[in-house]
Amino acid sequence: MAEEKPQRSVEDRVIDIVVERFKVDRSQVNSKFSLGSEIEVMYLLLDLDSEFELDIPEEEDRKIHTVGDAIACVAGLLKDKLARQIAAVS
Fold first, then answer.
1. What is the pLDDT of residues 6-45, one digit of tens each?
2. What is the pLDDT at residue 60?
């Protein structure tokens, strides 16, 4: 029987994507790490859409400036998505 991989947190997954997208060392990335220009944030949001199977609204790119902002955005959208799924089966 195959061993199950432990689930990674939203924070870890977002940081992994930031490390890959910005080509930085993981030790440099924390919640205050700046994500740069709106264009860079837009591309990051596309990566996050794909990773988390979300549809992040375009207007979010104006609200996201740091890794912490991105983590909060994704966590909130995942919470909303889960609430909708639970409501759908109730």
1. 688 999 999 999 999 999 999 999 999 999 999 999 999 9
2. 87
Residue 83, judged by CB atoms within 10 A of its CB (0-12, 13-18, 19+), counts as exposed
CATH architecture, domain 10-89: Orthogonal Bundle (1.10)
The residue assigned the tokens 């909708």 is: 84
Give residue 7's region: left, alpha or beta (phi > 0; psi -120 to 50). Answer: beta
Using CA atoms, how far apart are residues 57 and 55, in angstroms rounded to an integer?
6
Tens-place pLDDT, residues 46-76? 999 999 999 999 888 889 999 999 999 999 9
Local structure of residue 34 (DSSP, 8 states): B
Q: Name the token pair of 17.
A: 């994507």
The residue ranges of every structural domain in the chain are 10-89
